[in-house]
Amino acid sequence: MAAVDPENAVTAMDFSGLQVAIVHYWLITWRGGEKVIESLLKLFPDADIYTLFYEPSVCQTHFKNNRVFTSILDHGLLRKHYQKLFPLYPAGIRSLKLRKTYDLILSSESGPAKGIRNPEGTPHLCYIHTPMRYCWGFTQAYLDTMPRWMRWGARWQFNRLRAWDRSTIDNVDRYVANSKNVAERVRRFYGKTAAVCYPPIALELFDGELTANKREYYLSFGAITPYKNIELLIETFNRLDRRLIVVGTGSERNRLERMAKGNIEFKGALPLSAVTEIIRNARALLFPGEEDFGMVPLEVMSQGVPVIAYKKGGALETVIEDRAKPEHSSGMFFDEPTATALLDTLEQFEILEKQFDPGWIRNHARTFGEDHFLRVMSGQIRSLLDHHGS
């Protein structure tokens, strides 16, 4: 792992002796939210973990020193369909009982995690990835992915879940958002002020020298789910003679793969070493969805590769665009989620492509390194504990 600036370094010794409970919405895949948990465990290596669903085959190697407690929903068949069980999330979180008295509760939230019962009034800090998207601001987008006959009932269930979510807002003593974008959503939907701490980008991604990039293809990397809008990439590249490699898996993969022409290749889920090699020879990452933050663009930038992103959401905080000075840019934006807008930006990118500076892009990504996350979160946690007299 890359060296950490001693002035910024934070170790678990800063909080030695504290009894800590970490509450995460579910532990089924290993993506951005789970990487946050992995970093928090560097501050609290012996923390107990509470979650709705737990898939040991994916996550257990990350929790060798931790007890993991799950909800009444955590059964094989239900676990397989965890994302469709949103009406049951409140019951699931109510079934999670804290097993002892803790000094601190840390919830990692984009679902119901902050709703865990806290009878002892333990200080509770919520690191919020977003207020639940299907309840706040993106309800219609989720309904549009459902068969028409399901939509009325689903809307009713979303409304019920939103009312329950609203009832848990004051369970939290301090909100820390993963971006300015999410802090604004917290203000708008919850009426709360949230500090901002960007998620941790693994420092080992910055090890070694940048390698020569063959610039062989464009890249899509991440979950293939409706809100990621990978369909826009398929529509666009079906009209181009450029190569597109799609790395990842998800509910939309089979449908989109059937739509795709021969210049589009779906790789599925790959080990990190294989993904890194693919990134290093990509012309650019394509990031077509409106994300709350999005760690993938920064992970790709760590290899000196620029990002072409939809100009909304968290990408506005990570992608630096200056078309007059591409050597001081980390990517480019397209303004509308349409093939026409993306094609226009791709055309402009290919004119400027060789002027992007891989070293500048990597240095920009490095400012989001895990050491920064640990330093800021440590300060927020210490401030909360001091306020509560710990």
Structure description:
This protein has 390 residues and is of the alpha/beta class. It has 2 domains: 208 residues, Glycogen Phosphorylase B (Rossmann fold), CATH 3.40.50; 164 residues, Glycogen Phosphorylase B (Rossmann fold, 3-Layer(aba) Sandwich), CATH 3.40.50. It contains 14 helices and 13 strands. The strands form 2 sheets. It has a 7-stranded parallel sheet with strand order 3-2-1-4-5-6-7, with helices on both faces. Strand 9, helix 9 and strand 10 form a beta-alpha-beta unit. The longest helix has 20 residues. The chain is globular. The N terminus is likely disordered.
Written as H for each helix and E for each strand, in order along the chain, the element string is EHEHEHHEEHHEHEEHEHEHEHEEHHH
Taken as a percent bin, the fraction of beta residues is 5-15%
**DSSP E strands, number:** 13
CATH superfamily of the largest domain: Glycogen Phosphorylase B
Q: Strand order within the widest sheet?
A: 3-2-1-4-5-6-7
Helix content: 25-40%
Task: Give the uncertain stretches in residue-range form.
Answer: 1-13
The value of Rg in angstroms is 21 Å
Query: What's the number of domains?
Result: 2
Secondary structure category: alpha/beta
CATH class of the largest domain: Alpha Beta
The helix count comes to: 14
How would the global form be characterised?
A: globular
